Amino acid sequence: MRTGAQVVRVAFTYIGTVVGAGFASGQEILQFFTRYGSLASLTIALATLLFIWIGIQLMLMAYDLKAASYEDLNKVIFGERIGKWISLFMMVVLFGITTVMLAGAGTVFEEQLHLSYTSGLLVTLVLSYLILTRGIKAIMTVNSIVVPIMLLFSVVIVVYTWHSPSSGNWLRITSDDTLGQIWFAPFLYTAFNLAMAQAVLVPMGAAMTNRSTLVWGGLLGGAGIGLLLLSAHYALSAQMPGIAQFEIPMGSIMTKLGPLPQLAYLLVIYGEIFTTFIGDAYGLSMQLQQRTKLPPKVLLLLILSLSYLISHIGFKVLLSALYPIFGLISVVWLVLMIWRNRRSAL
What InterPro entries does this protein map onto (predicted)? Predict the structure, then answer.
């Protein structure tokens, strides 16, 4: 039972690290999958296989190396020199993501709860510091709380859509996009999310006591991400094409279920922002410890303080400026990762 509980904790942490604000809002699913029509079910299946395969490989390599951070892993995958540069870039990317997530938390407080933007930042920073000082086990515990709630909401949305007259849209809707665009989308989506997830998957993999926990946790976590993608795609497809006009498509669906489910879903969105924020901040702090040798708490305070300052630029501005660059580099990372595992298998 103890091993089973560890498998579930690994799976939930994997899901919580990948699933952020863009996923919870439905915007990511809409842009990478639903907009491409009925073929999205197949591209989601491909993305799920990539999440399972690469996720397991990342954690197993970290376990074998007992890697202190993702830099140790990248040096093995890409060589000492290239791996060091890739890790340096990833460090910049992680800091960018932490600022985006923090800005997203502030936006939730401002636009949805009608509180000040700054109060959202400060509440998130204080909670993050309290959790991050307790290490990877505390991060896994937070994900073990947030992810089941998120899964429950997915079930509710699927049941609601099942009774809709347009519930079969996911098998019928068409797209004018080329096959190249459609089949590139799952690679771009998984590349970006897996490259970022290594900040948590690597230290988690190194912290486990046996390989089978990571294999089953990666399998369950990757499959869970796939099911969440499919359920959101199923619900969004039933509302196409009108749903595409909303900035938070899933929020639009939740408004039809009443004020209480809408408020609860808002908390889920915040929870998913929070889990991504603490995961990336933790990975960044582990990386900086190797390079600076500063005390962990000092590094955390520096990271959180700088994130606070830069997050005042705003959620939308940071998102539009940083994500396209990160996505492109992440595709290169994924290709090299697949190539490395292919060579190892030969």
Answer: YkvI-like
